[in-house]
Amino acid sequence: MEFTARELCDFLQGTLEGDPSIKVRKPARIEEGQPGDVCFLANPKYLSFAYTTAASVLIVNADQVFEQPVKSTLIRVKDAYTAIAKVLDQYQNMQRESAAANHKVESNAIVSPSAKIGAKVHVGSFSTISEDVVVGDNSIIHAQVYLGKRVKIGANTCIFPGVIVLDECVIGDHCIIGAGTVIGSDGFGFAPQADGTYKKVAQTGNVVIEDMVEIGANTTIDRATMGSTIIRKGAKLDNLIQIAHNVEIGENTVIAAQSGISGSTKIGKNCVIGGQVGIVGHITIADGTKINAQSGVSKSVKEPDQALTGSPAFEYSAGMRSQVLFRKLPELMDRIKLLEEKISQLENKQ
After folding, report:
1. Residues 313 and 329 in one domain
2. Do 240 and 257 have their domain in common?
3. Residue 319: is its pLDDT beyond 80?
4. CA–CA separation, 342 vs 350, rounded Å?
């Protein structure tokens, strides 16, 4: 990637201040910026670095005020955070286009004769493409990926090293699957027996991941007992998440790391779920629900657009007030003891 500041400014539809001909080759953090880098400033906590960074170009909000001279060429935009997201996306796309231009099936990859591999697909070293697999055009299968029998991968999808996609699972177009993720592992289904043992319940379904889904590294998505575990269009899952059998994640829902969703729970669209959230099985979470980090959800959320916190989780503002009271409990306990002593003294005088 190499752009002039003017080209980058036009791409972002911003306003330029400084040298329009200066060139940038890669994005970088503002505190580490060097010549040839493009950085951004959206959080005032990082303002001091604007005066010291060696970055060639700095993307800032249109109303950003500087109290000292800034050496970098400035591109002022409506929202610097959104702008840098566009730059990063463009940078990543160019990297992938470069990889796609060198697409090939590596000689040490194993590809079944019955597999259907689309145009301009790259299959990395030591990957295995099993019987009757379908891979769409322009997709990248990195090294040491395993695709089980009858797996379907859409077009323009990127699967990073070490991913395992087991039999019958489906991944849509424009998806990103992070390294080490397992899709289609057996659901956790065991029937308790009279003698205290457990009989395994066969998991005969699959996992369906719709278009434009991104899944982080080392996440596990279990196949359904029957039917499908479904990740709807546009959902974003972080690293180290457990999605159990027959769960459904709605469109454009975002889930942070180390969260766990128990079996057969249905999560609506446009939900935001913080890190280390636990959700029990067989419940429904309404559209637009926001769940604070480390919360535990034990019953269905029926009203949309609620914010929840705590374990068991309840309405956010009430939860915050409860936390304030909880921190005051030692003081309140002391006051209660003092009142009890005064009452006892009054009773003794009678």
Report:
1. no
2. yes
3. no
4. 13
Over residues 170-196, mean pLDDT: 97
Residues 6+ apart with CB under 8 A from 139: 118, 121, 122, 153, 154, 155, 156, 157, 158, 159
pLDDT higher than threshold 80 for residue 105: yes
As a whole-number percent, the residues of the chain with pLDDT over 90 amount to 82
Average the pLDDT over 41-51 and give the result.
Answer: 94
Q: How confident is the model at residue 231 (pLDDT cuts 50, 70, 90)?
A: very high
Global pTM reads 0.78
d(CA 101, CA 139): 12
Is 103 marked active-site? no
Residue of 103, 142, 245, 282 marked catalytic: 245
Provide the β-strand partners of residue 177.
159, 215
148 and 271 housed in the same domain: yes
Say whether both 196 and 296 belong to one domain. yes
Helices marked H in the chain — which ranges? 5-12, 47-50, 80-101, 316-327, 329-349
Question: What is the phi-psi region of residue 276: left when phi exceeds 0, alpha when psi lies from -120 to 50, beta otherwise?
Answer: left
Query: Do 221 and 341 belong to one domain?
Result: no
Tally the domains of the chain: 3
- Specify the pLDDT at position 46: 95
Burial 274-313 (b: 16+ CB within 10 A, else e): bbebbbbeebebbbbbbbbebbebeeebeeeebbbbbeeb
Domain that holds residue 331: 325-349
Are both 232 and 120 inside the same structural domain?
A: yes
Q: Above 90 in pLDDT, residue 249? A: yes
Structure tokens that stand for 23 in this block: 């060139």
Are 329 and 296 contained in the same domain? no
One-letter identity of residue 298: S
> How distant is the alpha carbon of residue 5 from its chain centre?
31
